[in-house]
Amino acid sequence: MTATAPAEPVLEAGETLRARVALDLSPDGRFATGELCLTDRRLLARDGGRDGWQVWPLRPDLTLQHADSGGLAQLSLHDAHGRLALWRFTLAANPPALALLQAFERAQRRLASPPAGDEEEPAAADDDFAAEPPERPSTWVLLRLWRFARPYQGQLAAGFALTLGATGAALVPPYLTIPLMDDVLIPFQNGQAIDPMLVALLLGGLLLSALAAWGLGWAKTWLLALVSERISADLRTATFEHLLHLSLDYFGAKRTGDLISRIGSETDRISVYLSLHALDFATDVLMIGMTAAILFSIDPALALVTLLPLPFIAWLIHLVRDRLRTGFEKIDRVWGEVTSVLADTIPGIRVVKAFAQEKREAQRFREANAHNLAINDRLNKTWSLFSPTVALMTEIGLLVVWGFGIWLVSRGQVTVGVLTAFIAYIGRFYGRLDSMSRIVSVTQKAAAGAKRIFDILDHHSNVPEPAQPMPVGHLKGEIALQGVGFRYGPRAVIRNLDLTIRPGEMIGLVGHSGSGKSTLVNLICRFYDVTEGRITADGTDLRRFALADWRRHIGVVLQEPFLFFGTIAENIAYGKPGATRAEIVAAARAAHAHEFILRLPHGYDSVVGERGQGLSGGERQRISIARALLIDPRILILDEATSSVDTETEGEIQKALDNLVQGRTTIAVAHRLSTLKRADRLVVMDRGRIVETGTHDELLARQGAYWRLHEAQQQRHTGLGE
């Protein structure tokens, strides 16, 4: 990839440039140009898509942190309050970035002016790229859901207006008790006649307010429930789609059950919070605010007494909130362990039964479940003390109001009707206050769930899309690897590898386990990006192509073919969903799968179980070959395609592969060297390097690494035959 000439930073008088890094990624992980420079006074950064430089004068509280993994790296600038900036780049820019980091640390030590003597070197950054500086969990993470709520802001505004109206209607009845008590009931006890019109008017007002509160409450609950379900559905979809676009190294560090739990139960929890508890919280806030205003309008002194328990309750909520949030995050992680046991055991039930390990798996689940129970018990201990304490404070507050109110009535400062209305309002006030304290629990649950969801959404793929992708167009199929290197964290897997594969050529990759064969295939598919050098297709760097566009030209047949739950026809057409039945049958015929498919009860419409249960390994493999044939790829990857089947089935699969490789650039990985005799060229790998290339006969004649592999296999087969 060609880079534009960097713009020079404008230096101050006497300022010296110490280090610079040419950046090749944007902060969101896309290919882009930029630059990071360090002087003896400042740190300067420039985004290639924008004019001007960002500047940070050096000061003692600044820190620069480095992390790298899976082909990408980053530098992040921090001060005492948090992260100030983030720069991402491929590992091609890592050496100058490390040099800049060292120069920055030397400059910071000079600023701090440490005492003479040996200095302790700072600890190395975490090698996990995803592990950015930890952020303290916060309820404010729920505000990030506004991104998903924005499309429904009109409905949310209508729901808020309905909530306001319903709350106002619910506050009318206590106010009407004042004239009922002072103008009707108490005068009647003193011998005055009851005015029927006044009673009818007051009772009618009570009925109308009740009907209005019911109608408005139903409308706002229905409307906001619809909106919250759509928000959670959008959140679930966005999380799953983002997950699909993450690189393979992310999935290697995550458990399936944990990811399923995040997308499933966490989004459900957020949905329940938005549809019920967030609405209740908004209603409670409105009710408390409006009730407090009414109380002060009736009698300020009595209203002040009513608010006495509030500071203590607020302090208690603040004290318990962090414990609850931390506890719910632990519960989420432990629940992920429970679902991971299920995700491991149920798909592997055949292996469990084959090795009679039912008791062992039951014990694993029992232990995970017991751990979940223990965490819940510790959290419930905190919550069980908190909720009754709040209830006790509200009851004490109510008693204080009764006592103070009776004293005011005895002195003639308020009427019985006013005190009755006050008690009614206080019942609503403290009831809502108690409800708000209970919502603390579900709010922390939702915040913990939202944090786990945004942990996925905030993760960037280590295989970035180009900012301006080039179309692949008509692909001839020439692949060239030029000085390719790759490492997983600190471990180098591929080292300075050069290889050119001609259009239509079939090469075989051979070597001991761990020699780098599968990694090389993963790099060609761009499941990972090279950390050194480049891979080109017809002379164009693969990183210039959009991922989906490039992979559309690649057919992959794996050692363990994966079939989805569905029909045979749906599995064959997985890579080309719009394929006609004639195209599906033609691909199956070419893959030598047509005959056994017709023997199935419903032919091509027969449903295969999860992961192809009900079919033999050879049958699943031929369906995967038909799947690759149907998309008519220009480049074909065969990764141990015949290693797990018997000799007779291997012959059937080999016939299908002969049809598949014709006219295509093919890269075949195999441990059985006999399956690669048809290859135009064999490439022998050892410890991430190519040690030999040539045909089967040429390599045997050299009696080198390939010959030793061949002899070892022959001896094993002879021993098995004996």
From TrEMBL:
Residues 479-712 form the ABC transporter domain. Residues 117-130 have a biased composition (Acidic residues). Its main location: membrane. It holds the Pfam family ABC_membrane. One of its GO terms (cellular component) is plasma membrane. This is ABC transporter ATP-binding protein. SMART domains: AAA. The lineage of its organism: Bacteria, Pseudomonadati, Pseudomonadota, Betaproteobacteria, Burkholderiales. The keyword NADP does not apply. It is a multi-pass membrane protein. The chain crosses the membrane at residues 156-176, 196-216, 272-295, 301-320, 385-408, 414-431. Keywords: ATP-binding, Cell membrane, Membrane, Nucleotide-binding, Transmembrane, Transmembrane helix, Transport. Residues 111-133 are annotated as: Disordered.
